[in-house]
Design a protein that fits this description.
Layout (H helix, E strand, L loop, with lengths): L1 E7 L3 E7 L2 H18 L12 H8 L1 H24 L8 E6 L4 E7 L7 H4 L13 H14 L2 E4 L9 E10 L2 E12 L11 H5 L7 E7 L13 E15 L5 H5 L8 H36 L5 H21 L6 H12 L3 H28 L6 H12 L4 H9 L3 H24 L11 H9 L1
Antiparallel strand pairs: 1-2, 2-4, 3-4, 5-9, 6-7, 6-9, 8-9
Helix pairs in contact: 1-2, 1-3, 5-8, 8-11, 8-14, 9-10, 9-11, 11-14, 12-13, 12-14
């Protein structure tokens, strides 16, 4: 056979394979024998009908296609060995011509690119973490609500009251809610069940029974209810008022483990807020650093990788839905989900494809950095991480250690550590005070001008 190789964009290789006539003829003979052994032809025992009879019975076209179907995997494997190609996914193929037999395979291969030249130029500025005084005040106010007391009141319902009521709601006979002694807080701007329901409760009194009619929004998850009218029957049984404690030293002493003063409590709230913002900023910075390198490298890859990742992401969505559902297999859950969101499976895959492509680009770049920087996670690293994760959680720690005694679990943890180490290395490079090659610092530029 003759193999013609062509390098294609997106890390793909085209292999055009021309199969010689002698090999085709041998494949057709084998195809004839297979078909003859299964054929039930009057006057002949299985496998004994002459070839011309078999050809008339099945048609020469069928025999040729049977031969081609068996031949394609063989010639493809031989072509890969001849050209020393290691595919990362199944190839797509088409038969260019049948006689003579010429087939074209499009083979996805591992992308190759160099990150080393870009690493030296990777610089990303950090954003300083600033503590907003208003956020600290909001944190203190949240603590006041957490330590508030609830007192029954005999007056009409106001915003922020806690209501205990029997509530039934339906849309065209389909139940939305049917609950006795439901307890909830009516907060301005917060939706309860459907928009408009909470607003209808304001000014109603304990013991009152009434109906509430609201329109279901056009973007409601159940498209069968969109734009329809929902009807609620409500019986208010109790109204409670939230009584907030004074924000003073006495209040601070009763919060958590206790604080000497309101100022000490304020400092704790501020420190907790700073830690949270610093963690959030660190995650944002790591993402920006990686995305910055991806933009510099612009890795190309076979489209099939993104398609597989998109399918995996849809399966992840199904898994998340399945945790909250006790009914149906994966396919049934997917069908219900597609019906809820009003999309086809193809549309859903198309929707997640950009994110799948981003995941692939990031994964490829991280792998190249790992290799370029010779980053590994040793057995000692893995054991230390297992101990860190297990420490201080009692019996659950023992269970975690047993889980990581399995080799597969250890390897997953090892890969996770390598990814973390690689990101740590990128952050180290991106936050370096040294100017990238070819760029002058302000001091250097000044020295050059004054020199």
């Amino acid at each position: 056979m003759k193999v013609t190789r062509e390098e294609l964009p997106d890390s793909q290789i085209a292999l055009e394979i021309a199969v010689d006539d002698e090999r085709i003829e041998k494949a057709k003979t084998s195809a004839y024998r297979r078909l003859a052994s299964k054929a039930k032809i009057p006057g002949f025992r299985p496998g004994k009908a002459p070839r011309e009879v078999i050809e008339r019975h099945f048609g020469e076209h069928t025999i040729l296609h049977e031969a081609i179907d068996r031949l394609m995997p063989e010639v493809y494997k031989e072509a890969l060995e001849q050209e020393q190609i290691d595919p990362i996914e199944q190839a797509s193929f088409e038969v260019v011509t049948e006689e003579p037999l010429v087939a074209k395979f499009t083979v996805p291969v591992r992308p190759t690119f160099d990150v080393s030249g870009h690493l030296a130029n990777l610089r990303v500025e950090r954003n300083p973490v600033e503590i907003d005084e208003e956020k600290v005040n909001e944190g203190l106010e949240s603590l006041r609500h957490r330590y508030a007391t609830l007192e029954p009141v005999d007056r009409p319902i106001r915003w922020n009251d806690i209501i205990r009521a029997d509530v039934k709601g339906a849309v065209n006979g389909t139940s939305l809610v049917d609950e006795e002694d439901a307890e909830f807080q009516v907060v301005e701007g917060r939706t309860i069940s459907l928009p408009g329901f909470a607003e209808a409760l304001i000014s109603k009194e304990k013991g009152s029974e009434f109906e509430v009619r609201v329109e279901v929004p056009e973007d409601a998850p159940d498209e069968n209810m969109q734009g329809q009218e929902a009807t609620y029957s409500v019986h208010v049984k109790e109204v409670k008022e939230e009584v907030l404690p004074d924000l003073d030293d006495e209040f601070a002493k009763g919060v958590g483990e206790g604080f000497d003063s309101l100022q000490a409590l304020r400092e704790r709230v501020e420190n907790d807020l700073r830690e949270a913002l610093e963690h959030e900023e660190e995650q944002r910075y790591r993402d920006e650093v990686l995305e910055g390198l991806v933009d510099m490298v612009q890795p190309q890859f076979p489209p099939v990788l993104a398609q597989r990742e998109a399918e995996h992401m849809v399966q992840e969505q199904i898994g998340a839905i399945q945790q909250g559902s006790k009914r149906g297999n994966d396919r049934e859950i997917l069908e219900r989900y597609l019906q809820q969101v009003g999309k086809s499976e193809a549309e859903l895959l198309e929707e997640v494809l950009p994110l799948a492509e981003q995941r692939i680009r990031r994964s490829l770049v991280l792998s190249e950095v790992t290799e370029a920087e010779h980053i590994v996670a040793t057995d000692e690293d893995v054991e230390a991480e297992i101990e860190r994760l297990s420490a201080g959680i009692g019996e659950q720690g023992d269970e975690l250690r047993r889980l990581f005694s399995q080799e597969a679990a250890k390897e997953n943890l090892r890969r996770s550590l390598v990814t973390k180490k690689t990101l740590d290395r990128l952050v180290e490079i991106a936050s370096s005070d040294e100017a990238p090659p070819g760029e002058e610092t302000e001091a250097q530029a000044t020295a050059t001008r004054t020199g």
